[in-house]
Structures are given as structure tokens and as C-alpha cells.
User: Fold this.
Amino acid sequence: MPRIFTALEIPREQALSLSLLRGGLPGARWIDVGNYHITLRFIGDVDFRTADEVVHWLDRIERPAFQLSLTGTGAFGNKKPHAIWAGVSPAPELFALQGEIDRICQRLGLRADPRKFTPHVTLARLRGTKVQDVVEYLSARGNFQTLPFTVGRFVLMSSRDSVGGGPYQVEEAFDLYDPSDAYSLDSSDWQPARSMW
Assistant:
């Protein structure tokens, strides 16, 4: 059974901007450009019945589309850095969506994610990288920023065990409604969630 999580996809233009941050850091394993994403909620290894139940409830989320931009860079692991990331501009809609997904997972009895939600895009995993090298890498790229983009959906992704993250696969997609469209919440075109497997 694959590991599953909810995420936001990164549009092509912003992914290309992120790809320009690759290189110049010894010991970094760079994430493939096609695997860039913002994790909303890690769910983990679940059975097929639970996965279908997750899909059923995620499909009921009715939230508006919103704007995001990627800004700044940073590292996880102060004295032993283990990942480089690009930051995400603060957006109340992002935190509201993540909070609703988290509440659904808790209601379904899924284990809570012990980490505080910190929206980011992982750029590289680090192994044996010196702190000084990380400091120099980040100081040269601290003013990174992309153009804003519209988040029109969130996805349920799966990952297989591998080194360095990925490959990731979109299993289901859940549209967010256009807040300027008065008819976007019309339930007449509602479709039940199909089975994930």
C-alpha cells in the first residue's frame, strides 16, 4: 500500500523558477522538478477502505480558490541541516484548507501529524552538508520570489519508498470553487468520489 498525503501542486512557471535554485550545495540531493509540491497533511500508510473514506470526505470540502506565491528559502535542522526548502507566502485560505483536511483526518481516527504545519516546497535533501555551506547557499538566495499563482485544487498524492522523495503520483484531485462565480456551488453537477483503487 502506498503512502498517501494531501498537497498543492506547483504550476510549471513557478516550478521552473524553483529549478533555478538547484546546485551549488555539496551533499544535496535535489528533488526532481516534477515532484515539487506543498504538503498539506501527511496521512501515511492506510488500507484501501480507509483511503476510500478519506477520498469521500475530502470530496465534500467546499473552499474558495486562492492566490499563493513562493518566497524565500530556508533549511530544516539547525545544527544538522537535512533539507532545503522554498517558503510560501502567508495566506489565510491555505491555513483554513489545511485545518479542514486535518480535522477530517482526525475524525477518521488517523494519527495526528506531530509537526506544526509549515507550508514549504522541499528543494533538496541533505546528507553530511556543512552548516557553513548551507548558510552561504541560503544567503545568496534569500530574496527568491515567484509571481503569484491561483490554487484551484488540492490533490491526494501517493509515494513509493525511494531515496530522496518521489516519485509522487496524483491519485485524486479536488477542485476549489471560483469565489467570483455565483454558480460554482451548484450541487446539480456534483459527482460522488470514485474509488481510489
